[in-house]
Amino acid sequence: MNDHQTPSESVSSAGGKLPGRSIGAILVDSGLLTPENAERIMRLQKEKGLRFGDAAIELRLLKQEDIDDAISRQFEYPYLRKGQSSVSTELIAAYNPFDAQVEALRALRSQLMLRWFGVEADRKVLAIGSSGRSEGRSFLAANLAVVFSQLGERTLLIDADMRNPRQHELFGLKNGSGLSSILSGRGENPVQRVPALLGLSVLPAGPKAPNPQELLGRPAFTQLLEELAPEYDVILIDTPAGDAYADVQTVAVRAGAAMLIARKHLSHVSALRVLSEQLAQSGVAVVGSVLNEF
């Protein structure tokens, strides 16, 4: 270490220099490690030929989860730890990116890129719908938004379920202003960034309105999507249940495409088929259907 290096600047995960900030620098900057302890780790690392993380754990200065978190930040793939954020732990993609369920979400993301988002430049908007309640639309839409943002896509999640909104709860955001405010002409664009998740923004549903279907049917919604499209690579829209309200059709027509969700042991195939046919007749591209086993 020369006179111009700080301890944190000279640390790497395996003794060599990695692109960007080193693990040591990240840990020092986050307050999990002092520069003095970073030097202790480096001395042991050099003496025993260990990786930085293994040396830190041997000295009992850090835990494996600390190292994993630092590595994820080093490769610009950050994830959350319980108690670290107001984001709900229901967002498994944000808290457990190495879980098998999240791998299934990434596989779904790949299919959507192949079938819709990556096909033409103007295909940026997708409605998430289902025939009934409690089938996992909000859960899936939120977790998909997370994995798209982890891919580096500028991602916006719109909560168009103005009857039973959930996205503001899942992401720990305020819902004083939102989609209903914009569509009723009572506010500026209240899109909120999710600070803990890079590249992810949410437009909450906003205050409950007595006429959600009429609001969603206004030209202002189409105009809003057109204005937002240049700012994002992926726009996902959460919708109400299709068997109780026509909102999902209204939203899907404006999005241009929809993905339908069914839940194992709960959804009725006939109801899902009817909804799919109704959307197709309205000119909506039904990108596919997903069996939610979560």
Automatic annotation (TrEMBL):
Keyword Kinase in record: yes
Protein name: Chain length determinant protein tyrosine kinase EpsG
Highest taxon listed in the record's lineage: Bacteria
Keywords linked to the UniProt accession: ATP-binding, Kinase, Nucleotide-binding, Transferase
PANTHER family attached to this UniProt entry: FERRIC ENTEROBACTIN TRANSPORT PROTEIN FEPE, TYROSINE-PROTEIN KINASE
CDD domains for this protein: BY-kinase
Protein's gene: epsG
GO molecular function, one term: protein tyrosine kinase activity
InterPro entries in the record: Bact_polysacc_biosynth/exp (IPR050445), P-loop_NTPase (IPR027417), T2SS_E_N_sf (IPR037257), Tyr_kinase_chain_length_EpsG (IPR017479), Wzc-like_C (IPR005702)
Record's keyword annotation contains Phosphoprotein: no
GO CC, any one term: plasma membrane
